[in-house]
From TrEMBL:
It is an enzyme of class 1 (oxidoreductase). Substrate binds at residues 153-156, 210, 263, 329. This is UDP-glucose 6-dehydrogenase. It catalyses: UDP-alpha-D-glucose + 2 NAD(+) + H2O = UDP-alpha-D-glucuronate + 2 NADH + 3 H(+). It comes from Streptomyces arboris. Its EC number is 1.1.1.22.
């Protein structure tokens, strides 16, 4: 079928490429002309494993195109996905919905035939009726437009796999919108036929499914990091503890990796957005504990800064610190609310000379933190360093020979903020190793 994807960032570009992979004719639309140009040439404006190949393949076949024109998008097909950004409001904790409402309005003014508008962007509960109102007001096709809420659960770094083989599909509709359901079922036919649980629900439940999923994932990570705080005081090893807990199928291993905590464009802002909306709805107390989830997460960053100061005798002025990692997690170049970069920035503010290295995220990091030094090669990056911090667990870092590194540094001390370095190998190579979450 013919469909559009409006907003071609991390979510939208992946969704567009995957919809083409499913055999649909896809037109991606983005207001950023540079992005449109790059995507049209078959390249992603960011790093996501496998995405360049998929884009190249489907732009070459003609099944996937990109445009900056709403008029073109509106005329293209009967199904329009919207995946524009819904960032945290500047200076607030709720969502900035201006991109979403602007996209809906612009699309609406050009819609001249019946269509389904399926929103994938993450929003506070109660947004769908507002989007539907805008469509009713501005779309010449008016009543023949159906609004679907289709939250997205993909993870960056495995976004293609998560899109093509999701754990579940959620389709939210207002009452009596059976036509919209049929269109979406046709779009996802291959995924549904593969046995993917498909839950059809109302708008509010679909909106809340996303907010609560991300809040739960954040809670799980902060739970194990709260345990890490206890382990550090009690002389226990949180990494072994996480493994022990993970064998219990009711607990599981995923989301139980202790360390520097969560970052990224979504978990932190969705947690805060969920709390803010709960407050607006008068159920603030029910979610009071989520505030602690956020606080535990922030404390992990402070803890690394404290450990770094301790290792360097308290004063960071003039000391050289190398940070391995800028991305918020491995296999992405996304630095939004990156724990690694936040720690690097704090150490810089405290007077240290900070050199950052990352396999993919240096260009993005340079743009937002130009005051830090950047070096491509993780070995060259430690030259003359008094302290090394391992803050994003790229496999590349695990493969560096610690003996070779030890010869280049001024002080062979490493703080492992993710608990993935081979401690025995590093100690044998002469390094003093401190692992976050271990006494
Ligand atoms: N990044 C992820 O892994 C996931 C993101 N989400 C949600 O998806 C939404 C998008 O997130 P990302 O893709 O990460 O953001 P992003 O910032 O990478 O992409 C947003 C895109 O929308 C475009 N845009 C903004 N306003 C527009 C407009 N009025 N018309 C057309 N295009 C417009 C921007 O130019 C940009 O390319 C957010 O609500 C996010 O919470 C949901 C699941 C996963
Ligand atoms: O709404 C979104 O954008 C997405 O947010 C997360 O996906 P993502 O942010 O790509 O990454 P995750 O793999 O969930 O990791 C998030 C952060 O938590 C950290 N993390 C993750 C797992 C863990 O056990 N411990 C841990 O510290 C990671 O290092 C990273 O900083 C969710 O996992 C997705 O389901 C959701 O669609």
């Amino acid at each position: 079928m013919k469909l559009t994807v409006i907003g071609c960032g991390y979510l939208g570009a992946t969704h567009a490429a995957c919809m083409a992979e499913l055999g649909h004719d896809v037109l991606g639309m983005d207001s950023d002309r540079d992005k449109v140009q790059l995507l049209s040439s078959g390249r992603a404006p960011f790093f996501e494993p496998g995405l360049d190949d998929l884009l190249a393949q489907h732009t070459a076949s003609g099944r996937l195109r990109f445009t900056a024109s709403y008029a073109e998008a509106a005329q293209f097909g009967e199904l329009h996905f919207i995946g524009v950004g819904t960032p945290q409001q500047a200076g607030g904790s709720s969502y900035d919905l201006s991109h979403l409402f602007s996209a809906v309005r612009h699309l609406a003014t050009h819609l001249r035939r019946p269509a389904v508008v399926a929103v994938k962007s993450t929003v506070p509960v109660g947004t769908a009726p507002r989007a539907a109102e805008i469509l009713r007001e501005f779309a010449p096709a008016g009543e023949q437009i159906q609004v679907a809420w289709n939250p997205e659960f993909l993870r960056e770094s495995c976004a293609i796999e998560d899109t093509l083989r999701p754990d579940r599909l959620v389709l939210g509709f207002d009452s009596e919108q059976s036509w919209g359901e049929a269109v979406l079922r046709q779009c996802f036919a291959e995924i549904i036929a593969a046995g993917t649980p498909t839950i059809v629900t109302d708008w509010a439940t679909a909106e809340l499914a996303k907010a609560s999923a991300n809040s739960f994932l954040a809670t799980k990570i902060s739970f194990i990091n709260a345990v890490a705080e206890v382990c550090e005081s009690a002389g226990a090893d949180v990494h072994q503890l996480a493994e022990i807990l993970g064998h219990d199928v009711r607990i599981g291993r995923s989301g139980m990796r202790p360390g520097l905590g969560f970052g990224g464009g979504c978990l932190p802002k969705d947690l805060r957005g969920f709390m803010a909306r709960a407050g607006e709805l008068g159920v603030d107390q029910a979610f009071a504990f989520l505030r602690e989830v956020d606080a535990i997460n922030q404390r992990r960053r402070e803890r690394v800064v404290t450990l770094a100061r301790e290792q360097l005798g308290g004063d960071l002025a003039g000391r050289r610190i190398t940070v391995w990692g800028a991305a918020f997690k491995p296999d992405t170049d996304d630095i939004r609310d990156s724990p690694a970069l936040a720690v690097a920035q704090r150490l810089h503010e405290l007077g240290a000379t900070v050199t950052v290295t990352d396999p993919k995220a240096l260009d993005s990091a340079r743009k937002v933190r130009p005051e830090l030094d950047y070096v491509d090669d993780p070995v060259a990056a430690v030259e003359g360093a008094d302290l090394l911090l391992h803050l994003t667990e790229w496999p590349e870092f695990g493969r560096v020979d610690p003996e070779q590194l030890a010869r280049r540094v001024a002080g062979a001390t490493v703080i492992d903020g993710r608990g993935t370095l081979d401690v025995d190998a590093w100690r044998s190579a002469g390094w003093a190793v401190r692992v976050l979450g271990r006494a």
